[in-house]
Description:
Mean pLDDT: 93
Strand order of the largest sheet: 2-5-8-11-14-17-20-23-26-28-29
Largest sheet: 11 strands, mixed
Strand content: 25-35%
Distance between the termini: 56 Å
CATH class of the domain at 7-152: Mainly Beta
Helix content: 10-25%
Oligomer: single chain
CATH superfamily of the domain at 7-152: Hexapeptide repeat proteins
Structural class: alpha/beta
Low-confidence stretches: 1-11, 275-283
Number of strands: 29
Number of helices: 4
Shape: elongated
Radius of gyration: 21 Å
Amino acid sequence: MNDIQTTASPASTAFIHPTSLVEPGAVLGAGVRIGPFCTIGAQARIGDGAHLMSHVVIDGDTSIGADVVIYPFCTVGLAPQDLKYKGEATRVEIGARTQLREHCTIHRGTVTGTSITRIGTDCLLMAVVHVAHDCDIGNGVIIANNVVMGGHVNIGDNAVIGGAAAIHQFVRIGRAAMVGGVSGVEADVIPFGSVIGNRARLAGLNIIGLRRRGVDRAQLHIVRDAFAILFRRGGVFADRVAEVRARYADDPLVTEILAFIDQDSRRGLIRAAVRGGDDPEPE
């Protein structure tokens, strides 16, 4: 065991490799394993059963959930890449059972944002993912290799982000949406939507994802019809929203899409290209 003092419960069975440095004040839960050449800051809190494999840096006010696995050369909780940041007290939070693969970088929040960068439970961030300051990633999200995101990005539960996608700051990605690989996402993606391209355009619905989550054929038909009205017709978008709201007011998935559209947005919505004219695509 490392001879640097740590804080843990009396029942803690944390193991710290002798080459790792754990600053006084760090809190380690029962069964935590810290492999070779890790550096753990004084404000870190690492939950029961978490495993830091090797060469991991945890800095700042950072909370790591139970059974999280962090692979080599990840850095979590370092200062944000924001020139306005002056060392204010901000945080990172990572939910239980999330996996961070090699070379992920997750920066703490800023006081001009929400002051916290949050990743939910049961997520998988593959190699070389960058999560910038004030991002909020939901539960069960899968983010493939080499994805980068600017600050203040919000990703809903069970979304899937394809490899090498780039997500503009302040973009919202709805629940169970899918972003294709090598896509440049500069505006919001509706829940259950599927976007691809540079710049990304709305290609359709994430039908496979909906089926995997138990959506039956009848409800798929309703969501598809609502999508077609919203994004495949010409005319005034507000009128199409009103039509869908009147027709499918009782459908929970359509209601979720409409609620997402109604929310304030810094970036606007990604739209599908349609024939016969439509609202302008985002620049």
